[in-house]
Amino acid sequence: MILIDVDGTLVDSVPDLAFCVDEMMKQLGLPPHGEAKVRDWVGNGVERLVRRALIGRLEGEPDEALFEKAYPVFLDLYAENTSRRSRLYPGVREGLEYLKAAGYPLGCVTNKAARFTEPLLRDLGVADYFGIIISGDTLPKKKPDPLPLLHAAEHFGVAPADSLMIGDSVSDVKAARAAGFGIVCMSYGYNHGADIRDSHPDAVIDSLDQIRGLLEEAA
User: Fold this and answer.
1) How far from 10 is each of 86, 138, 206, 208, CA to CA, in Å?
2) Is the pLDDT of residue 18 over 80?
3) Is 198 known to be catalytic?
């Protein structure tokens, strides 16, 4: 079984997220941040992203009243802009085609809310590759907790030792390690500006179509 993350792994969703963050800031009478800053804040769900945008940094908390005003604005914007600017990374479709043809059970595990995950995957034409899609609000806990990964393994009837997670961030690595999965990370993606190699995944690849070589080598 192979589970794959969405944002920063399958999809570059930052252009849409950054557009929505900046429009939200403008509606609040605050200065926009631009795509480069937003790129470093993505990866822990949209609530965390909005909190980071309101304080302009990765760690810390905004005024709660301001957040309560801002969050619905962002959600409305993102509901209308989930996939307008987002694109699959090069090699994603080829990698998914290989995995499907090779007979691997495939699942998608993301911290993105289901109301955004499913339309995004559908609009980009990759939803049907997955036998299960677990979003950030599907279960009581999300990555880096191992629960979503273990839930998927149970769904497919596969042991964690026979399972692989493909992601791009430290939360993917932590979840995989805690679940007893193997972990392969993309060299690109969203890891708050840090090199994913510093988190010591089992392997790092530059595009999803390179997974074929790794799996055939391990066979």
Assistant:
1) 10, 19, 12, 8
2) yes
3) no
| Selected catalytic residue, list 5, 16, 168, 209 | 5
Q: Are 10 and 45 in contact, with CB atoms under 8 Å apart?
A: no
pLDDT digits (tens, 9 = 90+) for 55-64: 999 999 999 9
106-109: strand order across its sheet: 132-134, 106-109, 2-4, 164-167, 182-186, 203-205
Kindly report the pTM of this predicted structure: 0.94
DSSP state at residue 181: -
Q: Which residues contact 65 (CB under 8 A, 6 or more apart)?
A: none
Query: Stretch 193-213: mean pLDDT, rounded?
Result: 96
What is the residue type of 79?
A
Contacts of 147 (CB under 8 A, 6+ apart): 139, 140, 141
Instruction: Tell me the domains of the chain and their CATH numbers.
Output: 2-12+87-218 (3.40.50.1000), 14-80 (1.10.150.240)
